[in-house]
TrEMBL record:
Protein name: Inner membrane protein YgaP-like transmembrane domain-containing protein
Domain Inner membrane protein YgaP-like transmembrane: 9-57
InterPro entries linked: YgaP-like_TM
Pfam families: YgaP-like_TM
Length: 59
């Protein structure tokens, strides 16, 4: 097994952050606009919120 550090790596840069922010926003807003089932909205909003948080803290 190779000796790799077991730590969180920082995002690549501002492009990666903007992609995560855009994707996260879409996952939160679009399912609600298209009236998807409540369970799908909840799951996708959770994933989208995690992406938005990762874009803000850059990890």
């Amino acid at each position: 097994m190779p000796d790799k550090p077991l730590c969180i790596k920082k995002n690549v840069g501002p492009i990666d952050q903007s992609v995560r922010l855009t994707l996260g926003s879409a996952l939160v807003v679009l399912p609600a606009l298209y009236h998807w089932p409540p369970w799908a909205i909840a799951v996708l909003a959770t994933i989208g919120g995690a992406q938005i948080l990762e874009s803000i803290i850059a990890y």
